[in-house]
Amino acid sequence: MTGTLRGLRSVHEFRQAPPGAEKLSYSIGLPGGAHCAGSARGALRSLLVRHGLPDLCDNAALAASELVACAYRFTPDKEMVLKVRWQFDALRIVVFDQHPAHSSPEASEECRRRRSRGMWLLSAVVEACGGDWGLTPVLTPMGGTKSWALLPLPR
After folding, report:
1. DSSP letter for each residue of 28-72
2. Contact, 56 vs 152, CB < 8 A?
């Protein structure tokens, strides 16, 4: 019996159906850098196909790319987190970055306006598919920004 495990089934016997949309919930750490937008697009496309949501691939890839690119513009070369989740019949894409906290509410609001203006492409895509998007400061002493997009299934 040396080197043999008896009674174990072959790996091919464990084939399972791919997970459905209800199991789509991932957090992906991105190292920072301009290349992260492409990494986010590729990862998101792969996840959506695997979970049976290929119709969302184009809009979701663009949304993730725009969210990551904006985070990179405001926090270059800092780590960020991409979260993807299917909930209430819509895809939620969230990016957390490490943008430092502002010293005044006025500076914070001006920064939010600058970010919003830079997300015109995201806004157009999300509006066209009947979704929503936004951004908000993360309420921690170190700061940070949470930007997100909500995409329903195409009709």
Report:
1. EEE--STTHHHHHHHHHHHHHHHTT-GGGHHHHHHHHHHHHHHHH
2. no
Roughly how many angstroms between the first and final C-alpha of the chain, as a whole number? 59
Please give the DSSP secondary-structure letter assigned to residue 12: G
Predicted TM-score (pTM) of the model is: 0.85
Length of the chain: 155
Query: What's the token pair of residue 104?
Result: 């005044």
Q: What are residue 149's DSSP bridge partners? A: 93, 133
Residue 64 Cα distances to 13, 23, 71, 96, 124, angstroms: 36, 19, 11, 12, 14
Reported confidence tier of residue 6, pLDDT bands at 50, 70, 90? low
Q: Which residue has the tokens 């959506």?
A: 48
Strand partners, 147: 95, 135
Q: Are 77 and 32 in contact (CB under 8 A)?
A: yes
Helix or strand run (H / E) with residue 109: helix 105-117
Range from 61-65, 73-77, 81-85, 140-144 carrying the lowest mean pLDDT: 140-144
Q: Which residues pair with 97 in a beta bridge?
A: 145
